Amino acid sequence: MAFPRELYKALEDIVGKENISENIGVCETYRCVPSQSSAHYGPTKNWTPRPQAVILPGSAEEVQNIVKICNKYGVEFKASTTFWSTMGYIGGDFALQIDLRRMKSIKIDAKNMHAVVEPYAIAATVQAEAMKVGLNLNIPGVGCSSSTLANFSTWVAFGPNSISMGYGNENVLGMEWVLPDGEIVRTGSLASDDGWFCGEGPGPSLRGIFRGAFGAAGSAGVCTKIAVRLHPWPGPADFPTYGLAPAYKADWGPNFKCYTLCFPDWKSWARSIQYFYESDIAYSGHRQFNMFGRNLKGAMIEIISNHERQLTDLEELVNDPYIKEQTEKMRHDYQVVIAGFTPKDMEYKEKAVDYILEQTGGWKSEMMLEKDKHDYALLYLTRLGHKNLNYVMCGAYEGVLGLTGNVWKAIEVADEATALKRKWETEHTSIAATGGDSAMGCLSGLGGGGTTGWEFFTNFDSYDKNSVEGTYAFVETTQALMNKYAFGPDFCRWNSDVRKMNGYNYTQEEQNEMFKKAAQPWVFIYQYKIREAINPKNLCGSYVRTLDPKALEE
Amino acid sequence: MESMKQNLVDIVGAANVIDNPEVLASYAKDESFATPMKPWFVVKVENAEQVQNLVNWARKSQTPLVPVSSGAPHFKGDTVPSVPQAVIVDLSGMKKILSISRQQRMCVIEPGVTYGELQEALAKEGMTLSTSLRPRANKSVLTSVLEVEPRLNCLHQFNYVEPLRCTEVTFGDGIQMFTGEAGGGPQDLKKQWELGKWQVHPGGPGTTDIVKMVTQAQGSMGIVTWASLKCELLPTVRKSYLVPAKKSTDLEDFVYKTIWGRVGDRLFVMNKAYLAYLMGDTVEQIAELKTILPNWVAPVSLSGDILLPELKVESQEYGLKEYAKQTGVHLLPEVPGVTADEVIEKASTPSGENYWKLTYKGGCQDIFFVTTLDKTPKFIEAMYELAIEVGYPTEDIGIYIQPQHMGTSVHLEFSLPYNPDNAREAKLVKELYTAASMRMSKLGAFFSRPYDIWSTIQLNKDAQYYMLLRKVKEIFDPDNIMNPGKLTIK
Amino acid sequence: MALQDYRAMMERCSNCAGCKFIPFDKVKSLRFAENCPSIGYYNFMTYSARGRFQLSQSLLDGRAELDDTITNAIHACTSCGYCDIGCKITRYNLEPLEHNIEQKAYAVENGKVLEGQKPVIENLKKEHSMIPGTKKANRTDWAKDLGLKDVFKDKADVCFFAGCKYSYDPKLQKVAQNAVKLLQSAGVDVGYLGAADNCCAGRAHQMGFFADFKDRANANIKAFETAGVTTIVTPCSDCYHAFKRQYPKLGSNVKVLHIVEYIDQLIQEGKIKFTKTVPMTVTYHDPCHLGRLGEPYVPWDGKEKKIFNQIQIWEPRRPRYNGIYGIYDAPRNILNAIPGVTLVEMERIREYSWCCGAGAACNESNPEFSAWTAGERVTEAKATGADALVTACPWCKDNFVNAVDENGNKMEVLDIIELVQQAI
Q1: Cβ neighbours of B446 in A, within 8 Å
Q2: In C269-346, which ranges are continuous DSSP H helix?
Q3: Is the pLDDT of residue A297 over 80?
Q4: Is the pLDDT of residue A388 over 90?
Q5: Residue C159 CA neighbour count, 13 Å, CB half
Q6: In whole angstroms, what is the distance from residue A346 CA to residue C173 CA?
Q7: pLDDT-based confidence at A488, cuts 50/70/90?
Q8: How many C-alpha atoms does B26 have within 13 Å on its Cβ side?
Q9: Nearest-by-Cβ selection for B207 from A206, A216, A232
């Protein structure tokens, strides 16, 4: 249903003609095909609904006015930034897509180590600006191409350097939100105009109603500005790199090392991670390149770190005796970046790494110490610039078997999960056969250690109907293993209860049916009540899980 | 009233319902200037079930509940009822340490566990808990973390409420739930442990950080009956320094640089008066220290635990010396009157039976808020100006600056000792406290923990935030039974 | 190829945002991090390579139509090719630039062109020049009195190909003349096509007017063959790209050098010697079609194959144009060789250089967009502190000369040949 003229005109008056469009072709480009992009509910070829219009506000005030108009006319709205994920797209037919790309400022308070950012400031730009003053930020695993604000305020945000910097939830300071009813709320010290430095309070932290373990993915209004905590960067201010595209590399001198640490088994692997949790040695820690799979990672590392190489070389490289041997040595591995604040600090950290290896029977991968590989991996883990690595093999992927949480528990399941995926790889052709174990993710999703953030990368071809359908079938099977070991919803199913497979929002009745069965359904009731308080017309989609208390009473 | 009492007896047993006038009187006021208000009963609870029953009873009977976990003396007015006919819910008897996991560096404790008790138990496992500055001997660890008392080690404060992770909470609507990671599994700790879940992740459950509803809340949302806490490894090597300065601003660059360089596990700044109050065990010692200590001191401490501890301390010492050199300050093992080791030891351990802040004059009023280090001079200057205006001795003003949340902000505290038995002095301090709180607020002080008059001062600054806060309070405490009158604008 | 032949690419785009930003590893600031002029100016997703992939699906499936807005969106692309480079940092099997141009061709086939494009193409058809209002009869006026050999009459080692802009633009004719004089004074045996001099039509290709491009290209290829031209030297980056990358697909075997390559070579051989100091700090703009799109064409005939179930590869190995072998060092060598000149770099350089805005005739069809794009570059150039912005393409120079930075200020813009001339 097209927007009534007076509605469209009102929106146009807010942002100007050039910043709104209801052209069907334009609106078509604001639809998401879950098989092509990240969906967290398994790939489908169903497009999300087409918005009736797309609007590009330039300020929080404009956002507020847009939201007020949406409330007046009962229009669903959802704001997004880079539009990478399905989460950012509207889920109904009478809906307005808000594109926040015109809002991208970054202001840094170097002394007090935080940056105030607008929605379209992607992590690469925040990091670049921060590095100029000796600071850095937690770039989540999604990569530096994503919006810092979106990650931190409305999604998860853990990544390689979470171990030394914390995850999204921990790094948010003051926030500015346009509530779904059109009111603007500022949290923490910002509320009283005292500054952006503190995100909690006064009193109970209202930040807590906007994001928890993860965020509301646009279903709790529009976050228009946040302060994120920054962390020390002991490297060069101008982020020098070298090498030819796409294999850019970095050599920042002896104060930076990137090691691929390898272990004889999962137990020693986990013990070593515990050492890193218990020390402040790792600047970054990620099981990164295993995303290419246990059998292919050595060859893929050779391809991505060498600008002359191509995927066409993959088979040959996989069979190369040296790469084969090196790949085998990296079965139980992960990468760490060690950064020295002083030469003495570096000396200590180097010795500490050696000590950990000594205690756990581990070793440093020789191949990954070769200069080109080392320098590639160092740059990759620091900027996460090649989010592409998620796509480089097949163009599409889905994360499954999310063994997130306790590392000791995760390793108990690792072999079984590997076997499950390997079986699918050999019995079906729908997913890339990479060797079963393709678990990747951060050493710790929490600052100072404590929880892993794994997912088994499952690569497929979004153009190939059989591949898409086969991958969908595969991700349907992984939940059983997750249930068996009480890991909760699998990565690939995180959003299966917030958006239907056909791309549309869930109704309240449908959510009631799902959430009343939860072991502790209370949070869904509170989320329902919070939504009733700030979003009485339920206009922002169904990414907040809600349970009508009446349904529980029944 | 008798039927009320019987109802309470039915819930917690006769021995745990107290209406002795003397006891009630002791809860009617604290060491602050909060308006005294006698409660109806004091109820000692023993478990979460009793708490839930109590809350449900309170909803039906429209009885205000004021949770208290620490022993007296209290200082902030949060445990003093703001309305008549309240029931004090005394959780201090819930003293179980429910679990300690060395592998996960986690512990789960009940509200009555004190720092001394917990640290002793953790030490046996080679662990410790980050601490606030020399807490009271009977201070509830759980209250301390729920109220977000600043920690001495800001560098491990990844989360603003570190070391607090998950909780069990009974909200004012009677719902009892686990928060954080624990909220996603079975509502049974033992079952969760069997599943390998150690209540590590504080976020959630879901898209809401439920735990944030009960932090800095003064018990106005719900009652927490256990909390999981992130522990640290017990240091095996420690080296401490004192950095003296004439002015606080002389230490600014050093503190920023040290935080940036991620050096040490203790760092704070105190003026001579505050340090004297901390270190002096008697009035005389304090008086002596106030004459000989440097104007300002930044204690800083380096530690190592299991991973090449000596080498770690050595490397950190190298960094610290570099930063000191770069910022023009000196690292000293001692200054006249105190050694660095003594300061760190005292700051890190619970107070003796007599709370240290009361040693000097028997009473003490604090004014504290959150700001940034570079803004502290203007607050300090304003405080001195006001003290002179009202006639409070400026040399008695204790000032403590505690960097927090990995250095993004600081807790700035002014401590004003006074003799509570001297009416004139008490009046003067009350006047100074009120005037200074307002002045600080105008200058940009953020009263993140808005006790007493700070509630009105802070919440009046943003109507939108206050309105939303009230809406949220209505969700979690629809009958307004949880410590009503707190976090309101008067 | 037709638009539907790109269906696999459309459905394989991962929406990684690589087409909108310079390589993420190279980002040094917020201000100069982005790199797609089209979405930079128009802001809607539709204007990015990702949006264009998505749009094509909707067009082919009948959900969207070629109305005025969409026609504008399709053509409001300078074909600068950065999206292609950004994409190839990620992917081995997508060709966003080819697709963008194919999408334009689809619009053209359906009669959907912009008003501003019509005189350009009309002029190409009638006068063999892509500058509206210019006449074929005046094409070689610039070359009078230079003593250039007509290669149809006299053999020459190299054939100088000025291109439309240098041939007609009165402000630029002198640059072309100086370029020829430079070669002559260095002893180069240089000629030109004389009356057969023609438009390369590379810009028609960038605009999706494939038939018009082919007409001119075939005529030129025939002329080269007839005249026995083996080496072409051109000072125009658009011509360079057309000859280097597009013409070989139509059978051309002629060797192509941009003037900067030739001058660099002559300096190294000692045939050009600088005698004057030019005390100036300059920054260099890499023209898209000389830089990232200046890589040599490599013939390939093969097909897609899947290995390890779903990994898509090309059999045999297919060339991957990721811009790294474009002409970047030659102009910098020249600038560094000029006494007194200090070269300072902008943030967006080499394969991820920002476009001047004149590509695909957007300066004619979408002048405001084109001017904004040029202004962005002038802002970036000014941020380096340079006295002048130097380039090696007449279209770039012209667009920069007329542009202002974000504060409304102009900047001195020099063709690299002008700077060389100053030093001799």
Answers
A1: 188-189, 192, 194-195, 197-198, 201-202
A2: 329-337
A3: yes
A4: no
A5: 32
A6: 60
A7: confident
A8: 12
A9: A216
Q: How many CB pairs under 8 A join A and C?
A: 227
CA distances from B67 to A46, A49, A245, B164, B353 (A): 53, 50, 62, 18, 23
Give C181-210 as a DSSP string: HHHHHTT--EEE-GGG-----HHHHHHT-H
Query: Which DSSP state fits B227?
Result: E
Domains and CATH numbers, chain A: 5-99 (3.30.43.10), 106-232 (3.30.465.10), 513-553 (no CATH)
Residues constituting chain A: 554
C221 phi and psi angles, rounded to 5 deg: -60, -40
Q: Please, are residues A247 and A306 in contact by the beta-carbon 8 Å criterion?
A: yes
List of residues 6+ apart from C181 with CB closer than 8 A: C146
Contact criterion met (CB < 8 Å) for C324 and A143: no
CB pair distance less than 8 Å for A213 and B262: no
> Are the beta carbons of A544 and A215 closer than 8 angstroms?
no
Cβ atoms of residues B448 and A202 within 8 Å: yes
With contact defined as beta carbons under 8 Å apart, do C368 and C360 qualify?
Answer: no
A220 phi, psi to nearest 5 deg: -125, 35
CA quadruple B162, B168, B174, B175: dihedral, nearest 10: 100
**Alpha-carbon distance A399 to A34, whole Å?**
13
What is the crossing angle of helices C49-60 and C96-109, to 10°?
40
What are the domain boundaries of chain C? Answer: 117-263
Query: Considering Cα of A348, then A352, then A353, then A354, what sign does the dihedral take?
Result: positive
Q: How far apart are CA B97 and CA B124, in angstroms?
A: 13
What is the pLDDT, as a whole number, of residue A354?
98
What digits encode the pLDDT tens for the residues C342-396? 999 999 999 999 999 999 999 999 999 999 999 999 999 999 999 999 999 999 9
* R_g (Cα) of chain A, nearest Å: 23
Mean pLDDT of chain B: 96
- Name the residue among C55, C70, C310 with its Cβ closest to that of A459: C310
Predicted confidence (pLDDT) per residue in B251-260, tens digit:
999 999 999 9
Q: Which two tokens stand for residue B349?
A: 């351990």
| Average pLDDT for B434-453 | 96
Cα→Cα distances C299→A116, B391, C59, C200, C242, Å: 50, 91, 31, 21, 15
List chain C residues with CB under 8 Å of A396. Answer: 12, 14
Query: What digits encode the pLDDT tens for the residues C257-278?
Result: 999 999 999 999 999 999 999 9
Nearest CA to A527 among A211, A222, A218?
A: A211
Does CATH place domain C117-263 in 3.30.70.2190? no
How many angstroms separate the CA of residue A203 from the nearest CA in chain C? 35
Contact A104 C30 (CB under 8 A): yes
Sign of the torsion formed by the C-alpha atoms of C63, C67, C73 and C77? positive
CB contact under 8 A, B372 and A448: no
Chain A contacts in chain C segment 282-341 (CB below 8 A): 306-318, 320, 322-324
> CA of A481: how far to CAs of A474, A489, A501, in Å?
12, 10, 22
Domains and CATH numbers, chain B: 2-90 (3.30.43.10), 97-233 (3.30.465.10), 237-348 (3.30.70.3450), 361-442 (3.30.70)
Comparing C-alpha atoms, which of A260, A248, A249, A251 is closest to residue A284?
A260
Q: Output phi, psi for A243, to 5 deg.
A: 95, 165
Output the CA angle B27-B130-A353, nearest 5 degrees: 170
Enter the DSSP assignment of B100. Answer: E
Contact between A161 and A378 (Cβ < 8 Å)? no
The rounded distance, in Å, linking the Cα atoms of B44 and A347 is: 55
Cβ–Cβ below 8 Å for C27 and A124: yes
Q: Which chains touch A (3 or more CB pairs under 8 A)?
A: B, C
